[in-house]
């Protein structure tokens, strides 16, 4: 099984100030040779000609147009705004990686594959791996009460078990919500013991443990502290020694020391009102106002924050390749780690059953079937960073998008990328939904089409028309909820439309 790149070309950043002809004739050949020889190991891939395609191989070839990727991130591809970094991996090899926008506006540093992002809740899967490793080794029992591992655990949370912490069924109130209610700023200097104290002061559970899924950062903070108590080591040190180093992740760490220097650290931002007050100065010093409206940004990065467990991980696109290689089974591990890590992956992808329903969550991982294909991953959102990773194990494909701007939507970007990469696979699954649907009473017809790996509802008030799948045969189209109907032969016969004030208007497929 092989993976390769077609016609990869590296372009010099425009701010280098190098004559393009000189760069192309003298520097480019050296870089191309370096790229070709390093691609087998690191999968190096960068910006390419719009006409190029990226070839992916598994059982058959899949292709993606690089110009389509660039178009998706076009609005972020500028030198005066934060943006996003994106990578596509297959079987642990990097097929594509690129940065769009700036990592630091103060110093005009562009995003690259070495930019160190705050990973937000993507961190949970690494925390889950660390705690899961202790389960594999028999040092933690999932059914044990949390009080067996944490001193002075409150009586109101006595029924919380270790397993509940992993899959958000503990009922613990969210750590950061408690802090907000208490007027405790996220910029306060706090360590893991301080955060555990806040959780203990939560006063009551949201629900009985094990009965309901309710996302909470408190569970993963508690897991980090349990790891410290079991190993008699700092959480960050244990993760580094037992997870990151064996995987070769030298540029990744949990940041529990605000004084620690982070090479290539990315700063996060939020957009504010546009400004048009830029002034141009001529040689005489006279100022003239430029009417161009420019986006403005305020920094949202919290330099004092050092919470770890639910977040706190920093990594780069270049380093994250090793994590995806671990999941694809294509990582060269020390012999002593191989068996443990295989057991760990199986453990992390076991989905909990709550009141007879199987959760779309394992250990630090969302696990679902999306448009007919198994998808695993996790989004993240904190202090202006927006992150998301999605992997499709059947095809060995992983996609990660990391953004340092509050208004970005990496989960939707990754789904768009997935539709490009797995277009034919998705369209084969979606094809039965396509067709004309008619309501007799209203005498109205709607057409569903399958285009570019997506299902679209064509109607005047929804020009893009892309529908989103909630679960099998249940879709959303803007504010409309659409439930498809099937006959005894499993053929789609129509759908029911519900809106905020109207329920189950029936359309029959023609």
Describe the model.
It is built from twelve helices and 28 strands. It has 510 residues and is an alpha+beta fold. 27% of the residues lie in helices and 27% in strands. It starts with a strand and ends with a strand. An eight-stranded antiparallel sheet has the order 23-22-21-28-27-26-25-24. A six-stranded antiparallel sheet has the order 5-4-20-19-18-17, sandwiched between helices. Residues 1-51 and 278-288 have low confidence and may be disordered.
Report how far the terminal alpha carbons are from each other.
44 Å
The CATH architecture of the domain at 428-509 can be named as Beta Barrel
- Overall morphology: globular
β-strand percent reads 25-35%
**Poorly predicted residue ranges:** 1-51, 278-288
The largest β sheet comes out as:
8 strands, antiparallel
Strand tally: 28
How would you classify the helix and strand content by structural class?
alpha+beta
**Tell me, what is the CATH class of the domain at 428-509?**
Mainly Beta
For this structure, the CATH topology of the domain at 428-509 is Lipocalin
Query: Percent range for helical residues?
Result: 25-40%
Number of helices: 12
Write out the strand line-up for the largest beta sheet, numbering strands in chain order. Answer: 23-22-21-28-27-26-25-24
Return the average pLDDT rounded to an integer: 86
